[in-house]
Amino acid sequence: MLELRQEVLFAVGGTVAVSIGFAIKDLVASLLAGLIILVDRPFQVGDRVTFEGRYGEITDIGIRSVRLVTLDDTVITIPNNKFLTDVVASGNAGTVEMMVQLDFFVGIDQDVERAKKIVSEALTTSRYVHLGRRWALVVNQVIQDSYVAVRLRAKAYVLDVKFEKDFESDVTERVLAAFGEAGIKPPAVLHRSADAVVAPAM
Predict the structure, then answer these.
(1) Strands laid side by side in the 98-107 sheet
(2) Contact predicate 98/91, CB 8 Å
């Protein structure tokens, strides 16, 4: 009985030792990663980052973990060792300004020049835009929801990252209202007669 008890004790002791070893390994990895983050500074408190499909603001960087608050106020605690192997994207990299990208889609038979003017005006007159930084409007043809469409991609900096969603709403609401007034329609299936189709030159 004594030998059996000793074997059981050894087995239990071994299991406990292995469990403690793994726990210590993860803890040490997180602590080392925390030091690397503090020295390398891939992001800072206040940065808007994307990590493993989650987007939000870094509110705390500790030795063991990082706290990320999503835009719907969900607090996510991420072990530091995760940042050693996974990609993290920072939207503002330590500054209060951040570029925001907005996409608008119109039909290929619509007045694209008028649409460009509407988007540009809404973009540059928003009270949240940082006109001291460059802004851009890129126009190209894409497939959107199985329709051929013209995409107007607007890029501009906001004065502060906290205005990101306010800026998106402000510009989007004014662009959609102006599109409606100008009669600019979204992408749709176009019906043309055979006579209207011109074969490309060979």
Answers:
(1) 98-107, 147-158, 136-144
(2) yes
d(CA 98, CA 135): 11
CA torsion, ordered 101, 107, 111, 114, to nearest 10 deg: -20
The Cα 43–Cα 85 span in angstroms is: 15
Residue type, 105: F
Residue 37 in domain? yes
Rounded to 10°, the helix 164-182/112-124 angle is 150
* 189 belongs to a structural domain: no
CATH number of the structural domain spanning residue 127: 3.30.70.100
Q: What is the DSSP secondary-structure string of 38-98?
A: HHH-SS-TT-EEEETTEEEEEEEE-SSEEEEEETT--EEEEEGGGGGTS-EEESSTTSS-E
Beta bridge partners of 56: 49, 70
Kindly give the confidence (pLDDT) of every residue in the chain, 202 residues in length, as a single tens digit, with 9 standing for 90 and above: 444 455 554 455 555 444 555 556 666 666 777 777 777 788 889 999 999 999 999 999 988 889 999 999 999 999 888 887 788 898 888 889 999 999 999 999 999 999 999 999 999 999 999 999 999 999 999 997 788 999 999 999 999 999 999 999 999 999 999 999 999 999 987 654 444 444 444 4
pTM of the complete model beyond 0.85: no
Structural domain harbouring 48: 1-94
Regarding whether 134 and 76 lie in a shared domain, the answer is: no
